[in-house]
Design brief:
about 300 residues; alpha+beta; Metallo-beta-lactamase, Chain A; seven-stranded mixed β-sheet; 7 helices
C-alpha cells in the first residue's frame, strides 16, 4: 500500500533501476579522533537521540558534490556558503528512537566500535537495542552491524525490500560480509510498512535503488529520518539539482530530494539528515524555488 503523506503524499517512490555503483567501504572509515556526542529530544511519547558516530574531512569536495556543474559554479557556491572549496566535512549520525518497549537504532555507522561507543556515551546500552533499521546498504550505514562473523546487536533487523533485492543480486563486499550472513533475521519492508507503531518506511529511492527514509510520529509531532536523501546542507539542500557522486540514480535522487524538501517545507516538519552538521536536526525553509537548511536550535525543546 502506498505511503500517503499529503500531508505525506509527496514522497511516493518510483520504479527501481538497477544501476551499478561502488559504495563507500569500511576501509574509508577513519573517524577523526574519538569525540562522541549525542542530542536527545522528546517526540510525543517517544524519545529520539542522534549519535555522532564519526566525522571525516574529505578533500576535493567537487569530486563528490555538484559533479554536474562547473568548477567555477562550485567554487562560487562554496564562497556563498562560507565554506572551503577544496574540502568538505562529513558527519555520520545514526539515530536511536525509544518507542514503547523498543529501542530502535537507525543505521550503524562504519564499525561496531564506533556505534557501540556512541550508544554508550549517549546514556543507552547497546544491549538495549531491540531493532536495527538499515536505510540502505552503503558501508557507512551497515559497517557496525557485524564484524568477522560476530553480530553487534541481539536485535531484529529491518531494511527495504527493494534495497535488499538489489544488493542480494549485486553484492558489494560490505554487504556480503556484514549483512548477508544475517539474512534470516532481516524483515524486508515496502513503502508505508511499520517497524513499530508510529515508525513507518517512506520510499526515497535514487541514492540507492531501495533507499528508505522513516517517518516517526507520536501524537501531533513527527520527524523524518531522511538518511541520505540530501547529503550536505549547502550543496544538496540549497542546490537540490546538483548531483552527488554516490547517488546511484542521479536523476531519481534529484526528484526524490525535491519531493521531500517540498513536504518538509510545507509541513514545517523537522528532519534528521545522516550527514547534516551534527546534531543533524533541521528544518527546510522554501522561498519560490529556493530552499534553505535551518538548523534546529530550541524548537524541539519547547514543542507542546
Amino acid at each position: 500500500m502506498a505511503h500517503e503523506i499529503t500531508r505525506r503524499g509527496a514522497l511516493a517512490g518510483a520504479a527501481v533501476l538497477p544501476l551499478a555503483a561502488t559504495a563507500p567501504g569500511r576501509a574509508q572509515a577513519h573517524a577523526e579522533g574519538h569525540r562522541r556526542s549525542s542530542r536527545r529530544f522528546g517526540l510525543g511519547d517517544m524519545e529520539v537521540t542522534t549519535l555522532l558516530a564519526a566525522t571525516r574531512s574529505i578533500p576535493r569536495a567537487h569530486d563528490f558534490f555538484g559533479v554536474n556543474v562547473s568548477r567555477k559554479e562550485f567554487r562560487a557556491a562554496a564562497e556563498a556558503a562560507v565554506l572551503p572549496p577544496d574540502e568538505v566535512r562529513m558527519f555520520f549520525t545514526p539515530t536511536l528512537v525509544a518507542a514503547g518497549d523498543d529501542l530502535i537504532l537507525f543505521d550503524t555507522g562504519y564499525s561496531p566500535v564506533d556505534i557501540t561507543e556512541a550508544i554508550r556515551e549517549s546514556g543507552h546500552s547497546p544491549d538495549d537495542v531491540t531493532k536495527v533499521v538499515i536505510t540502505h546498504m552503503h558501508g557507512d550505514h551497515i559497517g557496525g552491524l557485524s564484524e568477522m562473523g560476530f553480530e553487534t546487536f541481539d536485535a531484529d533487523i529491518y531494511t527495504g525490500a527493494a534495497e535488499w533485492d538489489f544488493w542480494a543480486k549485486n553484492p558489494s563486499q560490505g554487504f556480503a560480509e556484514t549483512v548477508q550472513p544475517l539474512a534470516e533475521r532481516v524483515t524486508r519492508l515496502d513503502d508505508g510498512d511499520e517497524v513499530a507503531p508510529g515508525v513507518s518506511a517512506v520510499a526515497a529511492f535514487g541514492h540507492t535503488p531501495g533507499h528508505m527514509a522513516y517517518l516517526v510520529s507520536s501524537g501531533r509531532h513527527s520527524v523524518l529520518l531522511g538518511a541520505d536523501f540530501a547529503n550536505h546542507h549547502a550543496y544538496s539542500v540549497e542546490r537540490p539539482h546538483w548531483h552527488f557522486s554516490f547517488d546511484m540514480d542521479k536523476d531519481r535522487a534529484v526528484a526524490t530530494r525535491l519531493r521531500i524538501l517540498d513536504m518538509l517545507a510545507a509541513e514545517r516538519m523537522p528532519f534528521i539528515g545522516y550527514h547534516m552538521p551534527f546534531p543533524g536536526i533541521g528544518y527546510i525553509s522554501k522561498s519560490g524555488d529556493s530552499y534553505r537548511y535551518v538548523p534546529e536550535t530550541y524548537q524541539l525543546a519547547v514543542q507542546g
